């Protein structure tokens, strides 16, 4: 997930309200995966002192991302915007995939866990994990990355074509809710053909409404959605999300709805400049700033650490605290050593070098075009040529005849004459 509002921060002070929501979302994901998901994936890792079963953090982050897509895509060149977003997202993700794959390959024989294959690695690097049952997720929490990259490309494609103006965008947002529901219950059942499953899951059609939610909140802040329209849209999105899960996890949907109210308040109201938050602004902003790195490294690597701690006799509280601390420290390292420098290099150094190389090539091409043209010799023709004047008919005829020997007394000439007489 792209959890930084880089373009927005350049133009306005950073609101602590967004960091509060971001921190709540990311670290609820961490705790939920440690206490609830790890015993499901690896039963030997549980139980923990408590369980947080509510799944709402990743969806919250996608809504925030969609909102800031609408805020930032309107500014400047769309291609530059897309490059900036991908430069923030992909380098850290690719490094996290390789790191998680290497660690999983190393420990799988020790623990009896699934051994990821080179095919799994390539599928995860190219963000096509959901397109085939032959591919396995290196880390299941990475499901948000293909969805987000796809959303960035769609935004960069549609926005310059006027989809942010008029009625096009509201129509698109309602389509994001209704069309996937129709496909889900008419064609994407458990017995559906594999190509239908691959297309539905690969395009993450059961999640695209989350981007509609973020865009709808932005439209509301611009006065293009009424409060009633926004409320109706959010309610429809929540029902649709619960329906995609066959209404098996309604408590998570309710928790997500509560978080959506916080997002609406952060987007449309004043900053949450409360005394408690003001005193904790530094830690909150720091945790919010490393949230993407934390998200990338917390789950599968956390499972590995929990298994080592379990084998070492560490209790449930100790495993919970140490796995959470590992997520924070490793997330900070990923942000500091990979995400931030890669983004800085790809958005500052690389464009300058690319522009310089491009200008050099164009200058060289222009110089070649300005070189004087060297006349090329032309073959003789009946029409004549300034370089090769016409040969007279006599010369042309003579050039094909055998010349008479000048000195008939020469031995070669005598032999030829004798031969001709015979």
Automatic annotation (TrEMBL):
Compositional bias per record (Low complexity), positions renumbered to this chain: 408-422
Species lineage: Bacteria, Bacillati, Actinomycetota, Actinomycetes, Pseudonocardiales
Gene Ontology CC: membrane
Pfam families named among the record's database cross-references: Acyl_transf_3
MF-aspect GO terms: acyltransferase activity, transferring groups other than amino-acyl groups
Domain spans labelled Acyltransferase: 17-335
Organism: Actinokineospora spheciospongiae
Protein name, as recorded: Putative membrane protein
UniProt keyword Transmembrane, yes or no: yes
InterPro entries, per the entry: Acyl_transf_3_dom, Acyltransferase_3
UniProt keywords, alphabetically: Membrane, Transmembrane, Transmembrane helix
Membrane-spanning intervals of the chain: 16-34, 54-73, 93-115, 140-159, 171-189, 195-218, 254-274, 286-310, 316-335
